[in-house]
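Appendix B. Chain record.
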Amino acid sequence: MRTKGSDQNDFQGEEGVGYVARFTNESEQRQGLKLGEIQPTVIDGKLIHVAYLGSPEALVPDDVRRFGANLVKKAGRFKSSAVLDLEALSLSFVKNQNLVSALLEGVYLGSYSFDTYRTRSRGSKSGLKSIVLTVSEDDVETYQTSAKSAKILAEGVALARDLINEPPSTMTPRRFTEIAQEIATTYGLELRVWDEKKIEEENLGGLLGVAKGSNEPPRMLRLHYLPSDLDPAAKKTALVGKGITFDSGGLSLKSGTGMMTMKTDMSGAAAVLASMVVLAALGCRREIYGYMALTENMPSGTAQKPGDVLKTRLGKTIEVLNTDAEGRLVLADALALAVEDGAEQILDIATLTGACVVALGTEIGGIMGNDDSLVSQVREASLDAGEELWPLPLPEKYKKHIESEIADMKNIGQAGQAGTLSAGLLLQEFVGDVPWIHLDIAGPARSESDEGYLSKGGTGFGVRTVCTWLL
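Structure tokens predicted for this chain:
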């Protein structure tokens, strides 16, 4: 960050190549230049690479976020500095904090890579030394605040990605718990841990049933954040995340191909943990609980069987007809705990159904809930955050899809019909009258390519939406 009139000597960088950004004009638009595209040009006798931002009137935060990531990846081929003169770009841009924050988020997210297990770099790391924003002296403090917030949010997303990308035999429920303990100490959060004995004693039958097939013991975690300057008007909020650290499908075994990415099935819990970090670091003025239901879903001689009946924390019983529909079983207990703790609004996030991927693809998540106003709030936040959610219904008449012959409900609906909706209807049984939102992120939780600010693997989807909503 620097002000007008500062020393410009580092503009060209070590290799005599500098970067600047500006909006496209009509001529350039006719040439088909795309957002973030970088082309060499000569300015004042110097070779400069110009990154194009498109039209200032059409800019939305996610376009700018993608531009920031593209700048890092493309300009990073050189050891140089990128100079972004925000005032020269557009007055409307420089005064829009959402756009400036989105730009910086893109820069940080575009720099992400998970190289823990690589013996040599795959050559994707950026060589970019720095990105300098030039602003007027009056705006420096404002932009420093934006830069700090963007960095904290991006680091939260990176934490979620790291948790998801770890191998499943490393990122076990116990290891996840150790990380949560470290985070609780660092950020002054209260952590409660239910181990396997406590899970049984407190009748968390959904979680216990899924965990029966694994040698790795389950955990239920609850983080509690209570700010010193609590907003008395803010509702006590519970975040609930599905944490299946590896999902084989249990005795209803997945295919080999279907299992390849199933370390991703704890993306909901990762998003909750990362969101708690960001909210605490940025001083959110709400009281927030974060629940993470953690277990593996494995086949063995002790695993639950199709036809078994589980008794949940709430006392309601679920007939398990497909052991691969396990996420709703562990979430049922976590949702019941959130209600018991007095949550006034609940958001759960889970890689819950393949049916949601069929309906919405891999770039859009599903959102449903029992409160239309809350659905609208969270969806609006998701659009600002660049994490698109599409509203889905919870039709009362579809409750017959989860009626069981011998229990209060069954864990699957009718074959080939409304699989995402039947899962949502089951979860709704455990929140009572508390305003509640369910995010099905089975599609966007993982990216199959390096594109924009995403890198192949876990995306950390949901962190930016949750934090935008609550902040």
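Further analysis of this model is presented in Appendix C.
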